[in-house]
Specification:
alpha/beta, Rossmann fold, 6-stranded parallel sheet, 40% helix, binds flavin mononucleotide, EC 1.-.-.-, NADPH-dependent FMN reductase
């Protein structure tokens, strides 16, 4: 059985390194995870007015997340936090149908700097702790891929052995966590 993972791409750039990391994960773990990238580019800015009449893009995005077994956030860092468009996507998920509630979730992030989006990921964990979001986040297992541009081959595949070995461990841990979460939900 493969776990259906919707990977929310926190970048809106067509050349996104975070997307390249997700695509590398998609092929490396295809036997156990069915990873599908979910893009946030088309989401309109959240407002109370828009909430009452959301666009098809918003409805499709929320449905995509709702229909998944699990969620992966791939997070760039913009000015020591998450990109605004990712915050906007999260704001949409915090209203109406609460599509992230209890959803098994894990987080990766990449940046060209040394710290691999650590500050953004810390902010993301804090944001997601809001009760209207509240996914079941894999604890620890923090994936900070610094100097990401030096860790890909010319085709954009993640090739850095140490990063891949660490991701292997995180994915194993996530699958164990996912199974525990599912068993606990079934027992309730
Ligand atoms: C507006 C802006 C702000 C940024 N701020 C940071 C930052 O605070 N820390 C950091 O490590 N990188 C920062 N960066 C660099 C991004 O991490 C880098 O561009 C990364 O490749 C973005 O991820 P992506 O390739 O998936 O879009 C910033 C980039 C932009 C465009």
């Amino acid at each position: 059985m493969t776990i259906k993972v919707k990977a929310i791409i926190g970048s809106t750039s067509s050349t996104s390194y975070n997307l390249k990391v997700v695509e590398s994960m998609r092929s490396r773990y295809a036997d156990r995870l069915e990873i599908t990238p979910v893009f946030i580019n088309a989401l309109e800015p959240f407002s109370i007015d828009a909430e009452n009449n959301p666009s098809e893009d918003v409805l499709d995005f929320k449905k995509d997340v709702a229909d998944s077994d699990a969620v992966l956030f791939a997070v760039p860092e913009y000015n020591f936090s998450i990109p605004g468009q990712l915050k906007n996507a999260i704001d949409w998920m915090s209203r109406g149908e609460l599509v992230l509630n209890n959803k098994p979730t894990f987080i990766v992030g990449a940046s060209m700097g040394a710290l691999g989006s650590v500050r953004a990921q810390q902010h993301l964990r804090e944001i997601l702790s809001n009760p209207n979001l509240a996914p079941a986040i894999l604890p620890q297992n923090e994936v900070y891929i610094g100097a990401v541009h030096e860790k890909l081959d010319d085709a954009g595949n993640l090739t850095d052995e140490a990063t891949l070995a660490f991701l292997d461990i995180v994915v194993d841990n996530f699958i164990k966590f996912y199974e525990k979460e599912k068993a606990a939900a079934a027992a309730n």
